[in-house]
C-alpha cells in the first residue's frame, strides 16, 4: 500500500504543513498540490464542495506527492466510508464531543475486526494499491475535530479511544463555545488552557495534533508550541488576500 507520508513526518517530529480547500474546483486543488504542501484537505463541511466534485479534487491532488485529506460534513458512517472509498488518506470529523461519538467515528473508518467499515474501496484501490484493505487500518488517519467546551471536558475519554489517530483544534467554534469575545483568539487565557490540554492529552495517548491557525504567523507559533499539523490558510483566503494586495499595488501605480 502507498505509505502515508504524514505518519512518517509525525513520527520523525517534523511539522506537517496542511492546505485547506473550500473552492469546489479540481484545477485549484491541482495548482495548490503542486506547491509542495504536505497535505491538502478537501472541506465538505463548510466549503462548497459536493461529493462528486470532491472525488475530482482528490484525483487532482493525486498527481503529486501531497497527501489527500477530507473533512466530512458530519459524523455519519455513510459519509465517512464514501470519503475513504474515494481515496482520502485521512478524515477529519467535526463536533466530536464524547467518547461514544469518537468510537462511532473510528469504527466507521476501520475494517473488521477493528471497526465496521464495509468493503468497497473503489478509487482507494487505485490510489492506495491492491493491498489497500490489508493495510488501510494502519495507514488511514482518523482525526477528531475538537471545537467545543464539552469536547475539552471529555478530552481524556475521547483521546483514549482505540484506533483514533489525532486531535484537531477548530479555534473558531471552540472560542465561541468557551465564550471568548474575539473569534479564534489564541492569546485568550481560556483558549490557551484548552489548547494546552489538547497538546498534553494527545502526548499522553500518542496522538497527532492539528490546528487551524488562520495565518502563517500563528501557524509558526503553534508549530513551535507543539502542534504536529498546522493549517496556515485556505485557498479562498489566499485568493482574497493576494488579489487585494495586487489590486492595491496596481491602483497605486497607475493614473485614475
The residue-averaged pLDDT reads 97
Helix content: 40-55%
Total separate domains: 1
Which secondary-structure class do the elements indicate?
alpha/beta
Rg calculated over all Cα atoms: 18 Å
Q: Tell me the overall shape.
A: globular
Fold-level CATH name:
TIM Barrel
Topology, element by element:
Blueprint: H1 5-11, E1 16-21, H2 26-33, E2 39-43, H3 51-61, E3 67-71, H4 77-85, E4 90-93, H5 99-109, H6 122-128, H7 132-139, E5 141-146, H8 149-153, H9 155-159, E6 166-169, H10 171-178, H11 189-204, E7 208-212, H12 216-225, E8 229-231, H13 235-253
Parallel strand pairs: 1-2, 1-8, 2-3, 3-4, 4-5, 5-6, 6-7, 7-8
Helix pairs in contact: 2-3, 4-5
What does this structure look like?
The protein has helices at residues 5-11, 26-33, 51-61, 77-85, 99-109, 122-128, 132-139, 149-153, 155-159, 171-178, 189-204, 216-225, 235-253; strands spanning 16-21, 39-43, 67-71, 90-93, 141-146, 166-169, 208-212, 229-231. It is built from 13 helices and 8 strands. The chain has a single domain (5-253), classed as Phosphoenolpyruvate-binding domains (TIM Barrel, Alpha-Beta Barrel). An 8-stranded parallel β-barrel has the order 1-2-3-4-5-6-7-8, surrounded by 8 helices. It is of the alpha/beta class. 48% of the residues lie in helices and 15% in strands.
